Amino acid sequence: MSARMSPLTFDDVHFAAGGRKLVCGISFALGSSGISVLLGPNGAGKSLALRLAAGLLVPSAGAVRASAARAIVLQRPVLLRRSVADNVAYPLALRGVPRSERAARVRRALEATRLAAHAERPARTLSVGEQQRVALAAAWAREPELLLLDEPAAALDPGATRELERAIGAIRDAGVKVAMSTHDLAQARRLASEVLFVHEGRLLEQTPAAEFFRSPGSEEARRFLAGELLA
Amino acid sequence: MTEISEAFATAWRLIASGDAELLEIVSLSLRVTGAAVVLAALAGLGGRRALVALLSTGMALPPVVVGLALYLVLSRSGPLGALELLFTPTAMVIAQAVLVLPIIASLARQSIEDLAREYGEQLRAHGASRVQAALTLLYEARYSLPTALLAGLGRAVAEVGAVMIVGGNIAHVTRTMTTAIVLHSSRGDTALALALGLILVALAALVNGSTEAIRGAARRAGA
């Protein structure tokens, strides 16, 4: 992947379900590094955009182009009924990664997410925050160039959120492009290098984070930043 | 009262001494039931949507009706009469397999379906193919599938109506625990009937205990 090539582009992407237009003509090209945050109120279409980006959904019209290997962590990841290490190894086994390499990659991912001490515990007995990190480790172990995170901290308390954001930061620092959704303004401030503001299925702006928080380009984003509850 | 306690005492002596007739009956019962459960489990894995309604109905099949239908099919003038299976342990295996198939298949199907709903999108997110996802779901069901098998075992081992009709309750050939209990209690030989009854109750407790143990293991695994 060349440094200038966007790992993910949306070209006038539409998505409709049940007769309702949920994503209405979104176009963007993500920068090749840092964390792009899809920001917007609940129901804006952020999760759908990420599912489209991951290839879990197919657009009704338009095109999604990913030039990089992708992995997604769902908002409510469902862990397998096996150990933490086996959960992280699972997507690698699916791809036929040799057992010895698998073990090394699992160990690295667990250390980066500070889960090494829990490696042999049944994954589903961990706290919600730890389970979220297991899902993050499993996605990262695939060594994607683009990591998609859907509201990764939606159900977490501040302590667990801090641990998770630390892990996300480590992944970014390792050179992985991250695209994540959140409705949490403070989280976007802490993590974003650029903001894609989404409202009612439309992308209203794509702006470098510092500029977005100083002077957003759209009226809706201004109201959102001012703490108004957008419908 | 003394009659009952004497019967119990004799029953216990029969069990403790490993009475030959008792052991023969118990052994045949277990072989027939085991083979039936294995057959039904194999057939149940192939169950598809069109079969679901049929299976649900099948769960309430009256054993004597199954026995009668099979009797007609296997009798000398029936369509499969030439196989000469009537009054053999094989006929009993077939009857019990028919009876427990709906139970095993329905329970297994339900648990796999629940898991498919729970894991569907997650497995696609991991990049699993359809075959990989199906194998994963079977493995994830490792705590619930044995429970389905045990439910089938519980019904098969306690069944009397169908095996009586297609087996004929022939001494040393097709006499199982349940058919022997019917015969011996009708003859007033309550000791052997009671001994077999006690073993049946113990088996039921074992099945129940195994189910509980599996549930416990599932809970510890966070399932």
Topology:
The complex is a heterodimer of chains A (231) and B (223).
Chain A: E1 8-17, E2 20-29, E3 35-39, H1 46-54, E4 61-66, E5 70-73, H2 84-94, H3 99-112, H4 128-141, E6 146-150, H5 158-173, E7 177-182, H6 185-191, E8 194-199, E9 202-208, H7 209-214, H8 219-225
Parallel strand pairs in A: 3-7, 3-8, 5-6, 6-7
Antiparallel strand pairs in A: 1-2, 1-4, 8-9
Helix pairs in contact in A: 2-3, 2-4, 3-4, 4-5
Chain B: H1 2-17, H2 20-45, H3 49-58, H4 63-74, H5 89-126, H6 130-140, H7 145-157, H8 161-167, H9 177-187, H10 190-220
Helix pairs in contact in B: 1-10, 2-5, 2-7, 3-5, 4-5, 4-8, 5-6, 5-7, 5-8, 7-10, 9-10
Summarize it.
Chain A is an alpha/beta fold.
Q: Would you kindly provide a written description of the structure presented here, covering whatever features stand out?
A:
The complex is a heterodimer of chains A (231) and B (223). By secondary structure, chain A is an alpha/beta fold. Chain A has a domain at 1-68 and 180-231: Rossmann fold (3-Layer(aba) Sandwich). Chain A has eight helices and nine strands. A six-stranded mixed sheet of chain A has the order 5-6-7-3-8-9, with helices on both faces. A three-stranded antiparallel sheet of chain A has the order 2-1-4. In chain A, helix 4 (128-141) packs parallel to helix 5. Chain A is globular and about 50 Å long. Chain A starts with 7 loop residues before the first strand and ends in a 6-residue tail after the last helix. Chain B is an all-alpha fold. Chain B has a single domain (2-220), classed as MetI-like (MetI-like fold), CATH 1.10.3720.10. Chain B contains ten helices and no strands. In chain B, helix 2 (20-45) crosses helix 7 (145-157), helix 4 (63-74) crosses helix 5 (89-126) and helix 4 (63-74) runs parallel beside helix 8. The termini of chain B are far apart. The mean pLDDT of chain B is 89. Classes of the chains: A alpha/beta (231), B mainly alpha (223).
